[in-house]
Amino acid sequence: MAYKASGAGYADVARHFRTLIQDGELSPGDSLPSVQEIREQFDVSAKTVSRALAVLKREGHVASRGSLGTVVAEQQPTYRSGVARIGLIDRGGDGFLGGETAVEHMAGIRSVDDMATAEALGIDLRDEIAVRTRIFVRDGKRSVYSVSCYHIRAFGAVPELPEQGPLPGQWQKLYTERTGREVHHSPERYSARIATPDELRRLHIADDSSSARAVLVVSTVFHDEEGPLAFWEDVYAPGLSHSARSS
Questions:
Q1: CA 170 to CA 213: how far, in whole Å?
Q2: Helices and strands (DSSP H and E) totals, the chain
Q3: I need a surface site. Which of 21, 49, 82, 118 has the fewest CB within 10 A?
Q4: CATH for 82-236?
Q5: Mean pLDDT, to the nearest integer, of 36-59?
Q6: pTM across the whole model
Q7: Euclidean distance between CA atoms 113 and 123, whole angstroms
């Protein structure tokens, strides 16, 4: 991922190494290049490098280790949203973080039964949509329940969406190839709500009816020039941190 950017600022330098760390290309204990090497790589001053490293230290990504210089610190568990996973795939990855897998893949067609999904897709209750779900597991713990709902226009162009099994490519790229229309997504929306019994079951969390369990929900809407195409929602297990960075 190395690049040389004349006139880069400290934020550019920090972003570069943050990406390497978050994508697992630099692991805990790995040494960062020396200040001089970073200066030459980015064509920046020593002060700019110092500011970038200070930002990374405040964020907990790196630490000073004497003669070892600056090294990657032990990272807190981080879980990526669907949009951020697209960014990983676009950069040549597989969308998974270290130690992560996905289980219980399900796909099919069903009628919309909740108003939030209907409003996001601009359709009526009981209209048919394609739904794909899966559960991300990291280090043996279920972390994210991911639900992707698709408008009939989306699976009309990409009929593989409601079918079991992996898609032959990213759905939005398949849609663009087959329709000539670009797919964009809205900014991710963050909210908190009480988990449903089904979400608790899928995340293997005990459903204690005496106390409600709050979950973080990250959602986004994909659309083309004609309107909404998909509504993605990631439900995070209680107590987990996440990263929404996708660039």
A1: 33
A2: 8, 9
A3: 118
A4: 3.40.1410.10
A5: 91
A6: 0.70
A7: 11
